[in-house]
Amino acid sequence: MRVxxxxxxxxxxxxxxxxxxxxxxxxxxxxxxxxGGEKKTTSLVMELTAAAEGLEAAARLERSNSPxxxxxxxxxxxxERSNSPxxxxxxxxxxxxTVExxxxPxxxxxxxxxxxxTVxxxxxxxxxxxxxxxxxxxPQKYHALCKRLRDAFLAVNxxxxxxxxxxxxxWNEEVDARAASAREETSTRRKRAAR
Length: 195
Prior knowledge:
By secondary structure, the protein is an alpha/beta fold.
């Protein structure tokens, strides 16, 4: 399974930002997806959030398809929504504004019993370095989010793969567009609230 993620925001704190992820099966089937935004954030926070949210969704998919869960009748992932689509469209009341949907069983068995069947794909080298444990940003305000990302990466025993931004890679372009859209929606809600 692949987790493709991206964040969109300004370099400096205080501007709206957005994030998005898509979890794909081996055959490019969309297994789960999510997006959200924050009113005052940075692009780095959005990149880290996208990766953490995507890996956490992958972990839920793996758990929902574990042999014990399947034997208990849980043969498909839960359809989780932090906010209903109508609530998100109306501005939602969650600071993360997450909408996630699952489209079917994770393709866990396709890779056999391979312990490394989840790949985190991002165009943000810092997010990948945080996930793999190679880097921890100096500002302490990022440490809790970095720990969340690192823990999620380890929970699914993932590997990391960097892709060049805006290079035409289909799924990276898709999450980039979704993250930008989430940022714009957050910005619009922020402007309406200021009136």
